[in-house]
Amino acid sequence: MKRANWIRFGVTAAVIFAALGLLFPFWPLDKVIRLGLDLKGGTRIVLQAEGVAEMSPEKQRDITSRIVAILENRVDQYGLANVTLRPLGEGRIEVVIPGLKDPEKARRLIGATAMLEFRKVIKASPNRDDLEAERRGLQDILPSHERDETGNPVMWYLVSEPLLTGDILTDTDVRANPDPRYAGYYEVLIDFNREGAKQFAKVIAGLRAQGEVPGEEGDRLAIVLDGVVYSAPYINVDLKRTAQRTGTIQSARITGAFEFEEAKLLAVVLRSGALPVDVTVLSEYTVGPTLGADSIRRGTMALFISFVLVLIYMVIYYRALGLVADVALIVNMLFIFGALRAFGATLTLPGIAGIVLTIGMSVDANVIIFERIKEERRIGKAPRACVTAGFAKSLSALLDAQITTIIVAVILFMLGTGPVQGFGITLALGVAGSLFSALVVSRLLLETTGLAQWIPVKVVQEQPAK
Q1: Which of 121, 168, 349, 434 lies 20 to 30 A from 15 at CA?
Q2: Among 114, 120, 207, 222, which Cα is nearest to 169's?
Q3: Domains, in order of start, for the chain
Q4: Pick from 214, 232, 39, 18: which is nearest to 123 by CA?
Q5: Helices and strands per DSSP (H, E), number in the chain
Protein backbone atom coordinates (compact mmCIF):
# COMPACT_ATOMS: atom_id res chain seq x y z
CA MET A 1 0.00 0.00 0.00
CA LYS A 2 1.32 3.40 -0.98
CA ARG A 3 2.39 5.92 1.65
CA ALA A 4 -0.53 8.22 0.72
CA ASN A 5 -3.00 5.41 1.41
CA TRP A 6 -1.38 4.64 4.75
CA ILE A 7 -1.96 8.28 5.68
CA ARG A 8 -5.60 8.05 4.53
CA PHE A 9 -6.04 4.87 6.54
CA GLY A 10 -4.59 6.45 9.68
CA VAL A 11 -6.75 9.57 9.39
CA THR A 12 -9.90 7.53 8.72
CA ALA A 13 -9.22 5.21 11.66
CA ALA A 14 -8.57 8.18 13.94
CA VAL A 15 -11.85 9.85 12.94
CA ILE A 16 -13.87 6.65 13.42
CA PHE A 17 -12.41 5.75 16.82
CA ALA A 18 -12.64 9.36 18.05
CA ALA A 19 -16.29 9.58 17.01
CA LEU A 20 -17.15 6.24 18.63
CA GLY A 21 -15.41 7.28 21.83
CA LEU A 22 -17.22 10.62 21.93
CA LEU A 23 -20.64 9.10 21.20
CA PHE A 24 -20.51 6.15 23.60
CA PRO A 25 -22.98 4.86 24.93
CA PHE A 26 -24.78 6.07 21.74
CA TRP A 27 -28.32 6.16 23.25
CA PRO A 28 -30.48 7.83 24.49
CA LEU A 29 -29.83 10.76 22.21
CA ASP A 30 -30.22 13.45 24.87
CA LYS A 31 -27.46 11.82 26.93
CA VAL A 32 -25.06 11.85 23.98
CA ILE A 33 -25.68 15.20 22.27
CA ARG A 34 -26.99 18.45 23.65
CA LEU A 35 -30.52 18.90 22.33
CA GLY A 36 -32.15 22.17 21.46
CA LEU A 37 -35.34 23.66 22.79
CA ASP A 38 -37.54 22.11 20.10
CA LEU A 39 -36.28 18.59 20.85
CA LYS A 40 -35.82 18.56 24.61
CA GLY A 41 -38.46 21.07 25.62
CA GLY A 42 -37.74 24.11 27.73
CA THR A 43 -38.05 27.87 27.64
CA ARG A 44 -36.85 30.66 25.36
CA ILE A 45 -37.12 34.17 26.75
CA VAL A 46 -36.19 37.45 25.08
CA LEU A 47 -35.40 40.25 27.54
CA GLN A 48 -35.42 43.96 26.87
CA ALA A 49 -33.13 46.26 28.84
CA GLU A 50 -35.08 49.38 29.78
CA GLY A 51 -33.90 52.86 28.85
CA VAL A 52 -31.19 51.85 26.37
CA ALA A 53 -32.91 53.33 23.32
CA GLU A 54 -31.60 56.79 24.17
CA MET A 55 -28.05 55.53 24.76
CA SER A 56 -25.20 55.52 22.27
CA PRO A 57 -24.47 52.19 20.47
CA GLU A 58 -21.28 51.79 22.53
CA LYS A 59 -23.19 52.31 25.80
CA GLN A 60 -25.89 49.90 24.66
CA ARG A 61 -23.30 47.19 24.00
CA ASP A 62 -21.69 47.81 27.39
CA ILE A 63 -25.00 47.56 29.27
CA THR A 64 -26.03 44.45 27.33
CA SER A 65 -22.68 42.75 27.93
CA ARG A 66 -22.92 43.43 31.68
CA ILE A 67 -26.44 41.99 31.80
CA VAL A 68 -25.33 38.85 29.93
CA ALA A 69 -22.36 38.40 32.28
CA ILE A 70 -24.54 38.73 35.39
CA LEU A 71 -27.18 36.35 34.02
CA GLU A 72 -24.50 33.81 33.08
CA ASN A 73 -23.24 34.00 36.65
CA ARG A 74 -26.76 33.43 37.97
CA VAL A 75 -27.56 30.39 35.84
CA ASP A 76 -24.14 28.87 36.56
CA GLN A 77 -24.55 29.28 40.32
CA TYR A 78 -28.10 27.99 40.24
CA GLY A 79 -27.00 24.88 38.33
CA LEU A 80 -29.02 25.21 35.12
CA ALA A 81 -27.28 23.22 32.36
CA ASN A 82 -26.82 24.04 28.66
CA VAL A 83 -28.25 27.56 28.97
CA THR A 84 -27.58 29.85 26.01
CA LEU A 85 -27.42 33.61 26.53
CA ARG A 86 -26.60 36.02 23.73
CA PRO A 87 -27.27 39.65 22.85
CA LEU A 88 -29.63 40.33 19.94
CA GLY A 89 -28.92 44.05 19.59
CA GLU A 90 -30.71 47.20 20.78
CA GLY A 91 -30.63 46.04 24.40
CA ARG A 92 -32.29 42.68 23.80
CA ILE A 93 -30.95 39.41 25.21
CA GLU A 94 -32.00 35.89 24.23
CA VAL A 95 -32.07 33.25 26.98
CA VAL A 96 -32.62 29.61 25.97
CA ILE A 97 -32.96 27.03 28.76
CA PRO A 98 -33.51 23.48 27.41
CA GLY A 99 -35.21 21.00 29.71
CA LEU A 100 -36.63 23.57 32.13
CA LYS A 101 -40.12 22.52 33.23
CA ASP A 102 -40.90 25.64 35.28
CA PRO A 103 -40.88 28.84 33.16
CA GLU A 104 -41.78 30.89 36.24
CA LYS A 105 -38.50 29.88 37.85
CA ALA A 106 -36.63 31.12 34.77
CA ARG A 107 -38.41 34.47 34.84
CA ARG A 108 -37.64 34.93 38.54
CA LEU A 109 -34.01 33.97 38.11
CA ILE A 110 -33.14 36.05 35.07
CA GLY A 111 -35.72 38.83 35.33
CA ALA A 112 -34.93 40.03 38.86
CA THR A 113 -32.82 43.17 38.89
CA ALA A 114 -31.65 42.24 42.42
CA MET A 115 -32.07 45.74 43.81
CA LEU A 116 -31.72 45.00 47.53
CA GLU A 117 -32.68 47.73 49.98
CA PHE A 118 -33.05 48.07 53.74
CA ARG A 119 -35.89 50.39 54.76
CA LYS A 120 -37.53 51.33 58.04
CA VAL A 121 -41.14 50.13 58.39
CA ILE A 122 -43.41 53.03 59.36
CA LYS A 123 -46.66 51.07 59.35
CA ALA A 124 -48.00 47.75 58.09
CA SER A 125 -51.54 46.80 57.08
CA PRO A 126 -53.28 44.05 55.07
CA ASN A 127 -55.12 46.84 53.23
CA ARG A 128 -53.08 49.13 51.01
CA ASP A 129 -55.64 51.94 51.17
CA ASP A 130 -55.14 52.24 54.93
CA LEU A 131 -51.55 53.38 54.32
CA GLU A 132 -52.12 55.79 51.47
CA ALA A 133 -53.27 58.67 53.68
CA GLU A 134 -50.16 58.42 55.88
CA ARG A 135 -47.65 58.41 53.05
CA ARG A 136 -45.18 61.32 53.09
CA GLY A 137 -42.32 62.51 50.87
CA LEU A 138 -40.04 59.70 49.65
CA GLN A 139 -41.94 57.00 51.49
CA ASP A 140 -43.28 54.02 49.52
CA ILE A 141 -46.02 51.46 49.95
CA LEU A 142 -44.66 48.01 49.09
CA PRO A 143 -46.26 44.55 49.02
CA SER A 144 -45.08 41.56 51.02
CA HIS A 145 -43.52 38.51 49.40
CA GLU A 146 -46.10 36.17 50.96
CA ARG A 147 -49.36 35.82 49.05
CA ASP A 148 -52.81 34.50 49.88
CA GLU A 149 -54.84 31.89 47.97
CA THR A 150 -55.90 34.47 45.37
CA GLY A 151 -52.34 35.64 44.75
CA ASN A 152 -52.66 38.97 46.54
CA PRO A 153 -50.09 40.18 49.09
CA VAL A 154 -51.02 39.24 52.65
CA MET A 155 -49.51 42.50 53.94
CA TRP A 156 -48.60 45.98 52.73
CA TYR A 157 -45.81 48.10 54.22
CA LEU A 158 -45.38 51.86 54.39
CA VAL A 159 -41.59 52.22 54.36
CA SER A 160 -39.02 54.99 54.47
CA GLU A 161 -36.56 55.87 51.76
CA PRO A 162 -33.70 53.31 51.43
CA LEU A 163 -31.28 53.33 54.40
CA LEU A 164 -28.85 50.84 52.76
CA THR A 165 -28.57 49.06 49.40
CA GLY A 166 -27.27 45.68 48.31
CA ASP A 167 -23.87 46.86 47.12
CA ILE A 168 -22.60 46.23 50.67
CA LEU A 169 -23.04 42.43 50.32
CA THR A 170 -20.16 40.00 49.93
CA ASP A 171 -21.87 36.59 50.10
CA THR A 172 -25.14 34.77 50.70
CA ASP A 173 -25.99 31.33 52.04
CA VAL A 174 -29.07 29.16 52.49
CA ARG A 175 -29.78 27.37 55.74
CA ALA A 176 -32.70 25.85 57.65
CA ASN A 177 -34.82 28.42 59.47
CA PRO A 178 -34.29 27.96 63.23
CA ASP A 179 -37.58 29.68 64.07
CA PRO A 180 -40.15 27.04 65.23
CA ARG A 181 -42.85 28.99 63.38
CA TYR A 182 -41.04 28.21 60.13
CA ALA A 183 -40.03 24.60 60.82
CA GLY A 184 -39.15 22.83 57.59
CA TYR A 185 -38.51 26.11 55.76
CA TYR A 186 -35.29 27.92 54.90
CA GLU A 187 -33.79 31.39 55.26
CA VAL A 188 -31.08 33.35 53.44
CA LEU A 189 -28.05 34.57 55.37
CA ILE A 190 -26.37 37.66 53.89
CA ASP A 191 -22.84 38.79 54.78
CA PHE A 192 -21.66 42.40 54.57
CA ASN A 193 -18.30 43.77 53.52
CA ARG A 194 -16.27 45.79 56.04
CA GLU A 195 -17.82 49.13 55.19
CA GLY A 196 -21.27 47.57 54.92
CA ALA A 197 -20.95 46.03 58.39
CA LYS A 198 -20.29 49.49 59.80
CA GLN A 199 -23.14 51.10 57.87
CA PHE A 200 -25.58 48.37 58.89
CA ALA A 201 -24.58 48.70 62.56
CA LYS A 202 -25.12 52.45 62.33
CA VAL A 203 -28.62 51.94 60.95
CA ILE A 204 -29.49 49.38 63.67
CA ALA A 205 -28.12 51.62 66.41
CA GLY A 206 -30.41 54.43 65.25
CA LEU A 207 -33.60 52.34 65.50
CA ARG A 208 -35.72 51.61 68.56
CA ALA A 209 -35.36 48.05 69.79
CA GLN A 210 -38.31 45.90 70.75
CA GLY A 211 -38.70 46.03 74.55
CA GLU A 212 -36.26 48.92 74.86
CA VAL A 213 -39.06 51.18 76.02
CA PRO A 214 -41.81 49.51 78.06
CA GLY A 215 -45.14 49.45 76.22
CA GLU A 216 -43.59 50.18 72.80
CA GLU A 217 -43.28 47.64 70.02
CA GLY A 218 -40.02 48.89 68.60
CA ASP A 219 -38.93 49.49 65.01
CA ARG A 220 -38.96 47.05 62.11
CA LEU A 221 -36.44 46.92 59.30
CA ALA A 222 -37.84 45.86 55.93
CA ILE A 223 -35.57 43.83 53.64
CA VAL A 224 -36.75 44.74 50.14
CA LEU A 225 -35.79 43.08 46.85
CA ASP A 226 -37.00 44.65 43.63
CA GLY A 227 -39.83 46.49 45.35
CA VAL A 228 -41.09 43.49 47.37
CA VAL A 229 -40.73 43.13 51.15
CA TYR A 230 -39.26 39.69 51.81
CA SER A 231 -39.06 40.08 55.58
CA ALA A 232 -39.58 42.85 58.13
CA PRO A 233 -38.13 41.75 61.49
CA TYR A 234 -38.34 43.76 64.68
CA ILE A 235 -35.02 45.08 65.98
CA ASN A 236 -34.23 43.30 69.24
CA VAL A 237 -32.30 44.72 72.17
CA ASP A 238 -29.33 42.35 71.85
CA LEU A 239 -28.78 43.28 68.21
CA LYS A 240 -28.93 47.01 68.97
CA ARG A 241 -26.52 46.66 71.90
CA THR A 242 -24.08 44.76 69.66
CA ALA A 243 -24.29 47.52 67.07
CA GLN A 244 -23.63 50.21 69.68
CA ARG A 245 -20.81 48.31 71.39
CA THR A 246 -18.83 46.99 68.39
CA GLY A 247 -19.85 49.40 65.65
CA THR A 248 -20.15 46.50 63.17
CA ILE A 249 -22.70 43.82 62.28
CA GLN A 250 -21.34 41.27 59.84
CA SER A 251 -24.54 39.58 58.70
CA ALA A 252 -28.31 39.65 58.55
CA ARG A 253 -31.07 37.15 57.80
CA ILE A 254 -33.90 37.15 55.27
CA THR A 255 -36.50 34.94 56.92
CA GLY A 256 -39.87 33.63 55.86
CA ALA A 257 -41.67 30.51 54.64
CA PHE A 258 -39.11 29.81 51.89
CA GLU A 259 -38.90 26.40 50.24
CA PHE A 260 -35.32 25.34 49.55
CA GLU A 261 -35.44 26.12 45.81
CA GLU A 262 -36.96 29.53 46.49
CA ALA A 263 -34.32 30.39 49.08
CA LYS A 264 -31.57 29.13 46.74
CA LEU A 265 -32.87 31.27 43.89
CA LEU A 266 -32.99 34.35 46.13
CA ALA A 267 -29.43 33.72 47.37
CA VAL A 268 -28.11 33.33 43.82
CA VAL A 269 -29.79 36.51 42.61
CA LEU A 270 -28.35 38.50 45.52
CA ARG A 271 -24.87 36.99 45.24
CA SER A 272 -24.57 37.56 41.49
CA GLY A 273 -25.19 41.27 41.88
CA ALA A 274 -27.75 43.72 40.58
CA LEU A 275 -28.44 44.28 36.90
CA PRO A 276 -27.37 47.74 35.69
CA VAL A 277 -30.89 48.51 34.43
CA ASP A 278 -34.37 47.03 34.73
CA VAL A 279 -35.24 44.28 32.26
CA THR A 280 -38.64 43.19 31.01
CA VAL A 281 -39.72 39.97 29.29
CA LEU A 282 -40.29 40.89 25.65
CA SER A 283 -41.40 37.43 24.52
CA GLU A 284 -41.53 33.93 25.91
CA TYR A 285 -41.74 30.60 24.11
CA THR A 286 -42.15 27.35 26.01
CA VAL A 287 -41.98 23.81 24.59
CA GLY A 288 -43.26 21.03 26.80
CA PRO A 289 -41.19 17.86 27.28
CA THR A 290 -43.93 15.75 25.61
CA LEU A 291 -43.74 17.78 22.39
CA GLY A 292 -39.96 17.60 22.56
CA ALA A 293 -40.00 13.81 22.90
CA ASP A 294 -42.38 13.52 19.95
CA SER A 295 -40.07 15.73 17.87
CA ILE A 296 -37.11 13.49 18.72
CA ARG A 297 -39.08 10.39 17.71
CA ARG A 298 -40.26 11.82 14.40
CA GLY A 299 -36.93 13.41 13.54
CA THR A 300 -34.99 10.25 14.38
CA MET A 301 -37.38 8.16 12.28
CA ALA A 302 -37.01 10.50 9.29
CA LEU A 303 -33.23 10.38 9.63
CA PHE A 304 -33.16 6.58 9.90
CA ILE A 305 -35.52 5.97 6.96
CA SER A 306 -33.68 8.33 4.63
CA PHE A 307 -30.34 6.82 5.68
CA VAL A 308 -31.46 3.23 4.98
CA LEU A 309 -33.14 4.08 1.65
CA VAL A 310 -30.01 5.83 0.37
CA LEU A 311 -27.82 2.88 1.41
CA ILE A 312 -30.09 0.46 -0.47
CA TYR A 313 -30.35 2.66 -3.56
CA MET A 314 -26.59 3.10 -3.92
CA VAL A 315 -25.98 -0.66 -3.81
CA ILE A 316 -28.73 -1.34 -6.36
CA TYR A 317 -27.57 1.31 -8.80
CA TYR A 318 -23.78 1.21 -8.42
CA ARG A 319 -23.39 -2.37 -7.15
CA ALA A 320 -19.90 -2.80 -5.69
CA LEU A 321 -19.16 0.92 -5.93
CA GLY A 322 -22.38 1.51 -4.00
CA LEU A 323 -20.78 -0.27 -1.08
CA VAL A 324 -17.97 2.27 -1.19
CA ALA A 325 -20.47 5.14 -1.10
CA ASP A 326 -22.33 3.47 1.79
CA VAL A 327 -19.17 3.11 3.88
CA ALA A 328 -18.32 6.75 3.16
CA LEU A 329 -21.84 7.78 4.22
CA ILE A 330 -21.56 5.86 7.50
CA VAL A 331 -18.22 7.53 8.25
CA ASN A 332 -19.79 10.90 7.45
CA MET A 333 -22.61 10.30 9.96
CA LEU A 334 -20.05 9.38 12.62
CA PHE A 335 -18.10 12.54 11.72
CA ILE A 336 -21.19 14.78 12.07
CA PHE A 337 -22.43 13.43 15.39
CA GLY A 338 -18.91 13.17 16.80
CA ALA A 339 -18.25 16.80 15.89
CA LEU A 340 -21.54 17.89 17.47
CA ARG A 341 -20.49 16.19 20.70
CA ALA A 342 -16.88 17.43 20.57
CA PHE A 343 -17.83 21.08 20.01
CA GLY A 344 -20.77 20.99 22.42
CA ALA A 345 -23.08 22.09 19.60
CA THR A 346 -26.85 21.93 20.03
CA LEU A 347 -28.92 19.64 17.82
CA THR A 348 -32.28 21.10 16.79
CA LEU A 349 -35.13 19.80 14.65
CA PRO A 350 -33.95 21.87 11.64
CA GLY A 351 -30.50 20.48 12.46
CA ILE A 352 -31.87 16.98 11.87
CA ALA A 353 -33.24 18.26 8.56
CA GLY A 354 -29.73 19.48 7.76
CA ILE A 355 -28.36 15.99 8.45
CA VAL A 356 -31.02 14.41 6.20
CA LEU A 357 -30.03 16.85 3.45
CA THR A 358 -26.39 15.96 4.05
CA ILE A 359 -27.13 12.28 3.45
CA GLY A 360 -28.11 13.07 -0.12
CA MET A 361 -25.24 15.49 -0.60
CA SER A 362 -22.74 12.95 0.75
CA VAL A 363 -23.57 10.30 -1.84
CA ASP A 364 -23.83 13.04 -4.47
CA ALA A 365 -20.11 13.71 -4.04
CA ASN A 366 -19.42 10.01 -4.60
CA VAL A 367 -21.73 9.97 -7.64
CA ILE A 368 -19.69 12.76 -9.26
CA ILE A 369 -16.47 10.84 -8.61
CA PHE A 370 -17.88 7.52 -9.83
CA GLU A 371 -19.17 9.04 -13.08
CA ARG A 372 -15.75 10.56 -13.81
CA ILE A 373 -14.13 7.19 -13.11
CA LYS A 374 -16.57 5.50 -15.50
CA GLU A 375 -15.77 8.04 -18.20
CA GLU A 376 -12.08 7.25 -17.83
CA ARG A 377 -12.88 3.53 -17.98
CA ARG A 378 -14.81 3.96 -21.26
CA ILE A 379 -11.78 5.33 -23.02
CA GLY A 380 -9.83 2.20 -22.12
CA LYS A 381 -7.76 3.14 -19.06
CA ALA A 382 -6.82 0.55 -16.46
CA PRO A 383 -9.00 0.45 -13.28
CA ARG A 384 -6.27 1.88 -11.04
CA ALA A 385 -5.55 4.70 -13.48
CA CYS A 386 -9.27 5.38 -13.81
CA VAL A 387 -9.55 5.90 -10.06
CA THR A 388 -6.61 8.32 -9.95
CA ALA A 389 -7.82 10.30 -12.96
CA GLY A 390 -11.45 10.29 -11.75
CA PHE A 391 -10.58 11.84 -8.40
CA ALA A 392 -8.24 14.38 -9.99
CA LYS A 393 -10.74 15.57 -12.60
CA SER A 394 -13.74 15.72 -10.23
CA LEU A 395 -11.91 17.61 -7.48
CA SER A 396 -12.59 21.13 -8.75
CA ALA A 397 -16.31 20.46 -9.27
CA LEU A 398 -16.58 18.96 -5.80
CA LEU A 399 -14.79 21.84 -4.10
CA ASP A 400 -16.81 24.48 -5.96
CA ALA A 401 -20.14 22.95 -4.95
CA GLN A 402 -19.28 22.09 -1.36
CA ILE A 403 -17.38 25.27 -0.43
CA THR A 404 -20.22 27.49 -1.63
CA THR A 405 -22.61 25.42 0.51
CA ILE A 406 -20.32 25.79 3.53
CA ILE A 407 -20.28 29.58 3.01
CA VAL A 408 -24.10 29.65 3.07
CA ALA A 409 -24.13 27.43 6.18
CA VAL A 410 -21.70 29.75 7.98
CA ILE A 411 -23.87 32.77 7.12
CA LEU A 412 -26.94 30.96 8.51
CA PHE A 413 -25.06 30.20 11.72
CA MET A 414 -23.71 33.74 12.18
CA LEU A 415 -26.85 35.69 11.30
CA GLY A 416 -29.59 33.23 12.21
CA THR A 417 -31.09 32.46 15.60
CA GLY A 418 -32.13 29.29 17.38
CA PRO A 419 -33.29 26.58 14.94
CA VAL A 420 -31.79 28.39 11.93
CA GLN A 421 -28.41 28.22 13.61
CA GLY A 422 -28.93 24.51 14.26
CA PHE A 423 -29.57 23.93 10.56
CA GLY A 424 -26.45 25.89 9.63
CA ILE A 425 -24.27 23.93 12.07
CA THR A 426 -25.30 20.47 10.86
CA LEU A 427 -25.22 21.54 7.21
CA ALA A 428 -21.66 22.87 7.54
CA LEU A 429 -20.48 19.78 9.42
CA GLY A 430 -22.24 17.52 6.92
CA VAL A 431 -20.61 19.17 3.92
CA ALA A 432 -17.17 19.04 5.56
CA GLY A 433 -17.73 15.38 6.45
CA SER A 434 -18.95 14.68 2.91
CA LEU A 435 -15.74 16.06 1.43
CA PHE A 436 -13.64 14.05 3.86
CA SER A 437 -15.56 10.84 3.21
CA ALA A 438 -15.50 11.19 -0.55
CA LEU A 439 -11.88 12.30 -0.99
CA VAL A 440 -10.30 10.20 1.74
CA VAL A 441 -12.48 7.22 2.67
CA SER A 442 -13.83 6.41 -0.81
CA ARG A 443 -10.42 6.78 -2.43
CA LEU A 444 -8.83 4.56 0.21
CA LEU A 445 -11.36 1.80 -0.46
CA LEU A 446 -11.15 2.06 -4.26
CA GLU A 447 -7.35 1.97 -4.31
CA THR A 448 -6.76 -0.76 -1.74
CA THR A 449 -9.68 -3.23 -1.98
CA GLY A 450 -9.84 -3.97 -5.70
CA LEU A 451 -13.42 -2.72 -5.98
CA ALA A 452 -12.36 -0.56 -8.92
CA GLN A 453 -12.35 -3.75 -11.00
CA TRP A 454 -16.14 -3.83 -10.70
CA ILE A 455 -16.81 -0.45 -12.26
CA PRO A 456 -20.11 -0.89 -14.17
CA VAL A 457 -19.37 0.45 -17.64
CA LYS A 458 -21.40 -0.04 -20.76
CA VAL A 459 -19.03 -0.82 -23.63
CA VAL A 460 -19.69 1.43 -26.59
CA GLN A 461 -19.11 -0.48 -29.84
CA GLU A 462 -17.95 1.41 -32.88
CA GLN A 463 -20.34 1.33 -35.82
CA PRO A 464 -18.86 0.06 -39.13
CA ALA A 465 -18.42 2.69 -41.78
CA LYS A 466 -21.03 2.64 -44.54
Answers
A1: 349
A2: 114
A3: 3-32+288-454 (1.20.1640.10), 37-110 (3.30.70.3220), 115-272 (3.30.1360.200)
A4: 232
A5: 15, 15
